[in-house]
Design brief:
- This protein is of the alpha/beta class and 327 residues long.
- The protein is built from 13 helices and six strands.
- Helices cover 42% and strands 16% of the residues.
- Strands 1, 2, 3, 4, 5 and 6 form a six-stranded mixed beta sheet that branches.
Length: 327
């Protein structure tokens, strides 16, 4: 049923090389990766072994002869990550099923994605050379401040903003619900979830990237793919006036959880109507836990941002199909 909703084989292309051995079928391999996310199989090696003994799963994926090797699956995953076919499949499904619908609440959030690879070392800053200043009265010159990243994102398309996201593996930190920081090494996933827990778009960035930098591209991308969005729900990790201005320009309302300005004073409270609507934000939290616990989010054994994103996108497509079937 998930494969019938996703229809990933319609967007996977088979390349014909003029020389050498013919390429093994990629459409069946793509369907097998969807099955891996549905069944929450940890590794590609386990998937190959499962296909070898499960004749029903082998026929559902489309393998009529033998099962390709683990290295063939790995090469196919790299091809999927470079071509961007998984993001195109999600966009096509969102436009097909929700392109004319009204979505009352879209919840945006990020989640930690620990990876099993070394973090990229950041170059050390060069020491500034000391400049000898002349004695005398100094006058301060007022220079205009450079625009912030969110202000630049207001003028760019969401594709241009997403292309500027950092993607290298590094270290990240998040403050948990109890107020204590948690650290990890790897990546960070940014997602927008509509009513019913349907994922609309998913980004994979470096772990150190701020959550607020993904808000404006997420809102713009969702507005292009769906009919109309009324409310965008953010937690207190998404500050900034550009987010409110972008939502207003899109004829939407952004509801951001208030944040403490001083340690001794409590955070301001939302109005009752906004507080009631903010309760719908639990859908994105359930999506993050579902992706990690049931669809491969906790089994990231590949390396490199493109492959990590492709691995996670199979789980995102699976959750999309399951939510559409429930609707």
């Amino acid at each position: 049923m998930v494969l019938e909703v996703v229809r990933i084989e319609e967007r996977v292309t088979q390349t014909c090389l003029p020389f050498g051995r013919p390429q093994l079928p990629r459409k069946q391999i793509a369907r097998a990766f969807i099955a891996k996310a549905v069944l929450n199989i940890p590794t590609t090696k386990d998937l190959v072994e499962r296909l070898g003994v499960d004749s029903r799963l082998r026929r559902i994926c489309g393998f009529t002869g033998g099962v390709p090797s683990e290295s063939t699956f790995s090469r196919a995953l790299e091809e999927f990550s470079i071509s961007g076919v998984l993001d195109q499949t999600l966009e096509a499904n969102v436009r097909h099923h929700l392109g004319q619908d009204i979505i009352h609440h879209v919840s945006h959030d990020s989640t930690a994605l620990p990876a099993r690879e070394q973090a990229v070392r950041k170059p050390k800053a060069k020491p500034k050379a000391k400049v000898e200043r002349k004695q005398g009265k100094r006058r301060r010159k007022e220079y205009p401040l450079p625009p912030k990243v969110q202000e630049l994102q207001e003028l760019r398309t969401w594709q241009e903003s997403a292309a500027a996201f950092p993607s290298a593996c590094d270290f990240g930190v998040k403050i948990g619900s109890m107020g204590f920081p948690s650290y990890w090494r790897g990546y960070k996933g940014h997602v927008s979830v509509g009513d019913g827990g349907v994922p609309l778009i998913f980004f994979t960035t470096s772990a150190s990237m701020s959550d607020s930098l993904g808000a404006i591209p997420l809102m713009k991308a969702v507005s292009e793919r769906t009919g109309q969005v009324f409310y965008n729900l953010f937690d207190r990790g998404y500050p900034g006036e550009p987010i409110l201005r972008t939502a207003k320009a899109l004829d939407q309302v952004a509801i951001v959880a208030p944040k403490k300005n001083h340690k001794d004073q409590p955070a301001s409270k939302m109005t009752p109507d906004r507080a009631k609507r903010f309760e719908n934000r639990t859908t994105v939290e359930r999506f993050n836990s579902d992706l990690k616990d049931n669809h491969g989010g906790n089994f990231i054994f590949v390396r490199g941002a493109p492959k990590v994103h492709a691995h996670l996108m199979f789980g995102v497509l699976t959750i999309f199909a399951l939510r559409i079937l429930r609707i």
